[in-house]
Amino acid sequence: MDRSAAPTDEPPRRAYHHGDLRAALREAAERVLVERGAAEVSLREVARAVGVSHAAPYRHYASREALLADIAAGGFDRLRAVFAALPAPADPAAGFVAMARAYVAFALAHPAVYRLMLGPEVRKADHPVLAEAGHRVLDTLRRALVALGVPAPATDEAMAAWGFAHGLAQLLVDGRLETDPAVDVALDIDRLVERSARIYVAGLGAR
Asked: What is the pLDDT of residues 13-26, one digit of tens each?
């Protein structure tokens, strides 16, 4: 995996103009999230960053948490777009491996947004826009598993697949995965993700 070529965690910069306040606020908040963490995001600060009054953000966001939920929902939508852009493989197992690789690559490229998407900062149950965005990603994963022969709706299998991918991604994002110094093998992220995905697929076949 070429980390040097991966996209950064920086949201695209846009000039604010009338009628685009919600997007400008979200982008300013994501910039704070990336640079300083979720605890530093505030409606007052993002209002100042885009040059509007402190009251203006409340036209679009009832609270700071609603703003964070919108950023997290956008992260899920971006992840789903990454999955949608993958080439359609003839072999469903290869397609599943590609999705696992894309998931881990997304987490490594956008660690701050990824932590917000799946961390405790925002409760999905309190924000339908966030819950729905997460369910759309889950639906994409369920369809990939049905293509592998798992009976629909494949919800349990999809949750298990997400669990293994999230575990790998979180360990890598946090820098917690290291090779055993007694074994002279460098950590190869691509190889690790592919083998993990294929072990999961093999387990489906043995169920």
From this structure: 444 454 589 999 99
